[in-house]
Amino acid sequence: VSFLFLSIVCLNDWLFILFFLERAPKPTLTVDPPSGPVTLGGNVTFTCTAPQHTPGMRFKLYKDDAVSSQITGPVHVPEAVFQITGITSQNDGRYHCVYDIPSSVSDRQRVSQTNSCPSPPTRSRVLGSG
């Protein structure tokens, strides 16, 4: 999960548009049974826990970098439980989880290109004759 921030800066007649990307905190993944190999035909439960709850969160469980399972829809707690029943050799692999936080779309803002930065304000004086 990432958050994008935009900043527009004008420096020495150059216009810079800066993008900042901030990553959300990592979730934790626990497995039950907690250690060692699992018996063929046994069950495994993965619990993916996000640092905080946000309505509408979506969780995905990956096996060897491919989506193995996902939970979408109304998740009311900051965790999702994934179960694998009847373990076979096809379930061997490395697992990790990811959570997504849906966001609302903001109002649109217009950015127009200019050839240079705005000039600084100037002062004018009127000199009297005489």
From TrEMBL:
Residues 108-130 are annotated as: Disordered. It comes from the Eukaryota. Residues 108-117 have a biased composition (Polar residues). Residues 1-30 form the signal peptide. The keyword Transmembrane helix does not apply. The keyword Acetylation does not apply. Residues 27-112 form the Ig-like domain. InterPro entries: Ig-like_dom, Ig-like_dom_sf, Ig-like_fold, Ig-like_Receptors_ImmuneReg. GO terms for biological process: immune response-regulating signaling pathway. Keywords: Disulfide bond, Glycoprotein, Immunoglobulin domain, Repeat, Signal. This is Ig-like domain-containing protein.
